[in-house]
Specification:
The protein is α/β, with parallel strands linked by helices. It has ten helices and 13 strands. Bound molecules: magnesium ion.
Length: 274
């Protein structure tokens, strides 16, 4: 990955339209001690408002959170939302849900109820029920073997539901409908709906994200769009072509983009630092 300052702005402005896809946690907002505590910094809100007002520019927030939570956390008029890692969208005010996810709702509800029985009274485990997905947070379980056993039990319970799949992250177990849209699928879905199959003829697409699930988005864009991974200085493997070192660095990129004029003119650098 190259630092975004080396050449990214040259690529943007070569097409009429700019479609920006932005992750929330760790990209627009610093990672908070608990999911509820995360908020949109004033600097991020200001630049999103400028980007939405820019001609031929679309801004989409892409996250594992639900679209309702995103709309509450990022209340910027004109912004669209992709939630639940790609399974649900609010675009131009219209809510849409992946049909694979919809069909799995009863299985998610069943497993959610069973997991609530298992961990509902434990103060050290958080069960997040997100409608079409589930998330078990085990960060607070002190004993390593107890956490291992609990996560294994959760995965075994999920495996009993054939329409669902589970995966283990950092002290977290995520459960989602098998074969449902991921972030990359959702990004391509939005681009095709707005610009057709040859979306890149008319549109520069850019995705900024910081986590493993964002790699689906970078891979989906491939050489047709631009990926930026927020690394916090860590040495990570990524399908993104560019790197932002921190949330502040990513916001600096967005401020520079807000200064890039539409319709093929590139005047970004004039406005940098203002
Ligand atoms: Mg993130």
């Amino acid at each position: 990955m190259k630092p975004w300052s080396a050449g990214l702005l040259e690529q943007v402005g070569t097409r009429r339209h700019l479609h920006l896809f932005l992750d929330f946690d760790g990209t627009l907002s610093p990672i908070a001690p608990t999911p509820d505590a995360a908020f949109l910094p004033d600097r991020a809100r200001a630049v999103l408002e400028r980007l939405v007002a820019r001609p031929h520019t679309t801004v989409v927030i892409v996250s594992g959170r639900t679209v309702e939570t995103l709309a509450r956390k990022v209340p910027v008029p004109g912004v669209s939302y992709v939630g639940n890692h790609g399974m649900e969208l609010i675009v131009d005010g219209e809510r849409e849900e992946d049909s694979v996810a919809t069909q799995a709702r009863p299985a998610i509800a069943r497993l959610g109820a069973a997991l609530a029985q298992l961990v509902g009274t434990r103060p050290d485990v958080v069960l997040e029920r997100k409608g079409i997905s589930l998330c078990v947070h085990t960060r607070l379980v002190q004993d390593e073997r107890a956490r291992e056993a609990l996560e294994a039990e959760v995965c075994a319970m999920a495996a009993a539901e054939t329409t669902l799949e589970s995966y283990r992250g950092k002290r977290i177990v995520e459960i989602r409908p098998r074969g449902a849209r991921h972030k990359g699928d959702a990004i391509l879905h939005v681009l095709r709906a707005a610009h057709g199959e040859d979306w890149d003829a008319d549109c520069n697409a850019l995705f900024v994200g910081d986590d493993v699930t964002d790699e689906d988005g970078f891979r989906a864009l491939g050489g047709r769009g631009i990926g930026v991974r927020v690394t916090d200085g860590a040495d990570v493997e990524s399908a993104a072509g560019y790197e932002a070192k921190s949330v502040d660095d990513a916001l600096g990129l967005l401020e520079a983009l807000a200064g890039v004029r539409g319709s093929g003119k590139r005047e970004a650098l004039e406005e940098r630092g203002t």
